[in-house]
Amino acid sequence: MFYLDFEKNLKPLAEDLELAKIRGEEKELAQVQKKFDKEVKKTYGNLSDYQKLQLARHQDRPYALDYIRLIMDEKIEIHGDRHFKDDHAILCFIGSIGGKKCVVIGEQKGRGTKNKLKRNFGMPHPEGYRKALRAAKLAEKFRLPLLMLVDTPGAYPGIGAEERNQSEAIAYNLFELSDLDTPTVSIVIGEGGSGGALAIAVADKLAMLEYSVFSVISPEGCAAILWNDPTKGEAATEAMKVQPDQLKSFGLIDDIIKEPAVCAHRDKKQASEAVKNYFLESVEALEVLTSEQRLDKRYQKLRSLGKFAQ
Questions:
Q1: Is the pLDDT of residue 109 over 90?
Q2: pLDDT class for 23, splitting at 50, 70, 90?
Q3: In this model, does residue 310 exceed pLDDT 80?
Q4: Which band of pLDDT confidence, cut at 50, 70 and 90, is reported for residue 138?
Q5: Which pLDDT score, from 0 to 100, does residue 44 have?
Q6: What is the CA radius of gyration of the chain?
Q7: Least confident of 21-35, 47-61, 86-100, 113-127
Q8: Are residues 58 and 191 in the same domain?
Q9: What was the pLDDT predicted at 102?
Q10: Long-range pairs for 159-164: beta carbons < 8 A, 24 or more residues apart
Q11: Claim to verify: residue 23 and residue 76 sit in the same structural domain
Q12: What gap in Å lies between CA 13 and CA 8, rounded to an integer?
């Protein structure tokens, strides 16, 4: 388990807690658990925006595939965009969640050097977004609810991706998802970066996990542009307002999903349950509406985003 600088005080207590569990002495376990819970509250109770960004990028944070494995049953993976190739930075599955048949799309960063390279560090190519749209259209065809899990630093900016029309692939997803005739839910589970995230974030319900971020550019990229100094990422994070509570106050997202007290990276199972419950509750509410009502609500929500003054 990896600990960030501001989490260091948790490490010895977590080790003591594991030893107490092994020994099975209830009194000792209760005492250590009380100390651990107190330190957890102290550690995560007053985080800066930059520390929250670090949590969103934590190497132990559950990725899309972790959630899919924990919440989906009878799942079958969908491969390829039927045009160029299969992009491993985008995952598509058909299966069920809590007995509800559905389609799930997710962006996958990968762990370990080999897997990170395979997943292209979670940065999809155009064929990844076209694969995602193919899966979304499959959900629409069979009237299956769609869940999208957002977690990317951004779409891949390489020459090949640009040659294969990266911006067009993203724009076309925005166009098609805005009018997709099936209940759609999108959740930012980690890092939601720029159009790479937006391409699978147009939905009836857009939510963010408590310690996730959603922004038009990475803080480091913003600092490089504004101050010609990418090391000023902390200042950029504060200025950009990328946290869930800030975005909800602007009306840019619908809901914030509470994470476990120890955060998603230390309790993947409870975090997965929160994602699962939010999806099922959202779908239940959306299925009460007719297609016309649901599409109109989605249209009105999208039209209300942003403000301007003449």
A1: yes
A2: confident
A3: no
A4: very high
A5: 93
A6: 20
A7: 21-35
A8: yes
A9: 97
A10: 160/125, 161/125, 161/126, 164/84, 164/125, 164/126, 164/127
A11: no
A12: 10
List the one residue out of 141, 120, 62 whose CA is nearest residue 129: 120
Number of H helices, E strands in the chain: 14, 8
**Cβ distance 281 to 100 under 8 Å?**
no
In a domain, 309, yes or no: no
Backbone angles phi, psi at 258, to 5 degrees: -65, 135
Cross-strand bridge partners of residue 187: 149, 207
pTM comes to: 0.93
> Residue 26 — pLDDT band, cuts 50, 70, 90?
confident
Residue 32 shares a structural domain with residue 148 = no
Q: Are residues 119 and 39 in the same domain?
A: no
**At CB < 8 A and 24+ separation, what contacts does 166-169 make?**
166/125, 166/126, 167/195, 168/126, 169/126, 169/127, 169/129, 169/130, 169/199
Pair of tokens at residue 272: 């997965």
Looking at the structure of the chain, the number of domains it has is 2
> Is 208 inside a domain boundary?
yes
In sequence order, the 6+-apart residues with CB closer than 8 A to the CB of 131 are: 78, 79, 80, 81, 86, 87, 90, 92
Question: Rounded CA gap, 86 and 128, in Å?
Answer: 7
Letter for the amino acid at 84? F
* Cβ-based neighbours of 94, under 8 Å, separated by 6 or more: 75, 76, 78, 101, 102, 103, 104, 135, 138, 139, 144
**Residue 205, token pair as written in the block:** 């319900």
Confidence bin at 309 (pLDDT 50/70/90): confident
